Every structure is written in structure tokens, then in C-alpha cells.
Amino acid sequence: MNSHKHNTSPISTLSFSSHYKYSLFATSLDLKRQRFTSPLLLIVLFLCLSFATSMGVSDSGPVVQTTPLVTFLQRVQLTALRSYSKKPDPKFYIDLSLKLPHDLSTAESVFDDLTTGSRDLSVPVEKLEKFVHEYFDDAGIDLVHHEPEDFVSDPTEFLANVENDQVREWAREVHCLWRTLSCRVSDSVIESPDRHTLLPLPEPVIIPGSRFREVYYWDSYWVIKGLLTSKMFTTAKGLVTNLMSLVETYGYALNGARAYYTNRSQPPLLSSMVYEIYNVTKDEELVRKAIPVLLKEYEFWNSGKHKVVIRDASGNDHILSRYYAMWNMPRPESSVFDQESASGFSSTLEKQRFHRDIATAAESGCDFSTRWMRHPPNFTTMATTSVVPVDLNVFLLKMELDIAFMMEIAGDRNGSERFVKASEARKKAFETVFWNEKAAQWLDYWLSSNGDEPETWKAENQNNNVFASNFAPIWISSFHSDEILVKKVVKALENSGLIAPAGILTSLTNSGQQWDAPNGWAPQQELIVTGLARSGLKEANELAEEIARRWIRSSYRVYKTSGFVHEKLNVSEFGAYGGGGEYKPQTGFGWSNGVILAFLEEFGWPSDLSIEP
């Protein structure tokens, strides 16, 4: 059966309550650990506590508590942003570590004294810097360099089909960046976790770079693609081991390995990481270890607030998933930005819902984009929890296929068959809910209600705007194996306006947000290019290669002119890196390195083909 009437998923539903380790009465302050210097401050903090404890009930969604250290560092962050004339990166302050031998209550008391009498919470910069230096270690000091044991400067059979010496030399330089980005969590994090916002992990990590001083969930898929090209199999397996440890601890893979990221996940690509490593190494032990972890993650995405049911005209229920962060306050890493963005809302409930939608956009990995706005480009119309996203459900369909494949390897044929049926049901949902025959694209679906109850599909609820994510399903064999479908999608992509001089645009709207035009991102290039290249259609293969070569050439030019691999590109111009969003352009860069190497592995580079345009 590809669809079913008023019943549950083909995968039996287990209780998820043990995995949602949250409190509906989350507090943003820990009163037991606060020392007050004035009755006024006590009143203010009591009002903040009352506000925070009501939040979990007001918008009826779950909230995961943060740590006392994170709560305090938000205060330091706010003071820093009020004190400096040139605004510092707010994430720097939330990544600080409490310096020995000080304890948190002492630091709080000194900080209370420092800010007493300040109407706007600002203080003289020299006093703030003295306080931070005395009580905290710098951001990033709890992550130390690690020399990867499987790194060699010129691996055997590395990019054998790259025949152009200029391209090959650059590819070696990109390969060598893995050493720069390789780190391990310091012993101090393991010994005193409450002094850090960085979370302990069992294996070394590859960080994205720049301000991103921790491992990130979905980034790791493209990092692993690059590591496998670089023959760094041990490092790749270690990244998966780390993510599995987070799932075992929290019930889901966190957005990133920080205490302030425990309230959300990111696009679920863990099964794809395991699948890619197995394809190269045939490591059956890794597969067997991964299965129970993936089952736990699968349940997270297919239960509670993440689960939605869309009913078609025949009364068939289609079970799909959405992003839904377990948080309804300003994000600690960007709390001032979020507070300012919400300042136009008059009621507490409106602010809570807005903050949840912002955090949910962060869970999507695409923060921020007009894709999540009811009335783009108005940022205050962010409504991410009301979107049933195409790409999330592609990742989950892939997860179902991956788990079925792994269970077959492990000898669990019954389990494998259950997940094959689940994948068939979700594929049917793609045809019913997302596919738009006229556009020849899969379109995100706007919910009419809060998503807690089944709702009937309406054609007008499809988001008709053009995004790169509309073409994400072509990534997996369920869709790119259908030649008739691929022909339609190729024509639609060619006519979409998304194909730009340096790659695929994220959207057609230049909103100033980083997941919109003119930016293009490595993950979306790889998903679409890989899907087109895997199809048996000649014109799809040719288009894939053309897009990949544009991306590689522009990445090369940016690298040669700036000295860095960048997080994103401005694909509307050749040789330009991307911008926009709430932070400065970042370099390093994990997933960009991975996609460059993966594209070179896939398409090679002939000796007589110049990398210059």
C-alpha cells in the first residue's frame, strides 16, 4: 500500500517521551545561583523568570532548558553589544569558557556589581574587557588542534581523473585544509562540562571554520564526502561516531555540539553519512552500530510536533515531517538580534511564536530565507513551523531507504521490508502533496493550521516561488531513476532562472538574507548535481557537469583572489563570495571543501580544459 486511510505510519510508533528531555516550564534564569545587588534587579529578574516559565505553556510547544552558564553569557553578550561602538560577533561571548578557579556564582556577582547603575546595561569597554579576561577563557580555547592520523599530503589514487596540473595542485591545497580544520574537544570540557558551552565528544572533529568553532550536524555529510575523496576514512567514521553519541544522549543529533543548540536538530543526514562510508569501506560493524541510533533519530522526526498529516481528496492520510525547534525565546547565540527582530510584536504569545519560527529556521539549516516567510521579504512574517518542506522529507525518504538497506545487511529482513513500505508511503506523499505538474517541481506546502491535527490538501497551499530546494528530490534514486520525470525536471530547472554564471541560485529573491539570491551554497549544488549525474538521461548528465564546472571554476577564482575557501558564493557573478544574513562572510570551509573535492572526483578535469573561464 502506498497510502492509507486514517492510520499510522508503516513503521510502528513507539513512545517518544523519553527522547524529548525538555520541560514545558523552561526558565531563562536559575535563581538559586544568582546573587542580587539591588531590590530593583531582583524585581526585574523575577519578572523575567515569570515570563520564561509561562512560555512553554503559552504557545503550547516544547522548550528544552539551557544551562546556567549559557543564561549568564547571554547577559554578558547583551552588555558587550551595548558597550562597543562597533558591534562584536555575539557568538563570541556565548562560546566563552569559565576560567579556573572561578565559579559561576562569583562571576555573576562581580558582573552584577559591574553593571549596577547602568540604565542600558552598557559599561566602559575597558572594564568589560578586564572582566571577560579575568573570568573567562577565550572562545575556541576549549577546542584544540588534532593531527589526523589518516592524513597524508598526497594520498594514493587521489583524484586520479584530474589530469590538469593546475587543478590538481589546487585540489591538494583544498585537501590539506582538513589538517587546519581538524580539532578535538579539550580535556577540560570532559572534566568540567558545566564550565563550557562546548559539548564533550568521543572523537576528533572537523569544524566548518571561522566563527563556527564546533561540529555541525548537516555540514558533516559534505565534509565526509570530501574526506572519503581524501582517503581519510578513520576521520570520517569518527564524525559519525560523534553524531551517534549525540543521538544516544539527546534522542536526536543536535544542530551543533554546543549547550545552546540542544533545543533543535538540523537536516537529518546521519543515515546518508553511514551509507557513504559503508559504500567505500564495507564496514558492517559501523552499520550494525548505526541501526538502533538511526531508529531513535527516525522516531524523533516522525512523532510529536515534527509529524504532520495531510489528507488528500480521497481521504488518504499522508504522513510527512516539518522542522520544529524546541525553543520559544531569543536564540542564545544571537539573542540581541532576535530581540530586536521581535520588538514590533505587542504580545508575549506573538513574540514566542516568532522566536520559535526563527529557531526552527535555524533547525532547517537555511537560516534565513524568504522560503520561510508568509509575506516575503518581511522578516517578521517568518513562519517556518507552518511549512512542510520538500528537502526535509527527501532526507527522511532517503533515511527510510538507508535503514532498509542497512537492515538487509544486518539480516533483519522484516525490518527492512517495514522501511521499504515506509519509503513507498512517503514517495506517494511526494506525488500528492509536493509535486506540481505545471511547474515540474516539488513545492513546499503551507499548513493552514498548527499542524497538530490532519488537514486536507489544498492546491493553493503550495508555495509557487522558485527555490533550489524545489529540485532536491532529484538527489535520490526514487526520483532520478524515472527518465520521464527527469526530463520534465531538467527542462524546469533550465527555465527556472536558478542557473547562474557560477552555479545554482538559492532563490530568485534578493532579500538580503543569506539563503536567498544572489547566493549559492555547496550543499544545494551537490544535491542537484549528483541527482542529475546519477540519472540515465544524457541531457541531465550534461547539465550536471556544466553546473559543477561553473561552481569549481568560481570557487577556484575566489580562492586565488582571497586566499580562502568560502562558506557560500555569490553565483550571480563569477569569482565572488557570498554575503548577507546576520554575520560576516566566513571562510574555512568544511562543506565547501568537501563539495569541491567530490565534484572533482565525480567529473575529473581534462588536461586541456582550463580552469579559468
Automatic annotation (TrEMBL):
The keyword Hydrolase applies. GO terms for biological process: trehalose catabolic process. Keywords: Glycosidase, Hydrolase. GO terms for molecular function: alpha,alpha-trehalase activity. It catalyses: alpha,alpha-trehalose + H2O = alpha-D-glucose + beta-D-glucose. Pfam families: Trehalase. It comes from the Eukaryota. It is an enzyme of class 3 (hydrolase). Its EC number is 3.2.1.28. Belongs to the glycosyl hydrolase 37 family. This is Trehalase.
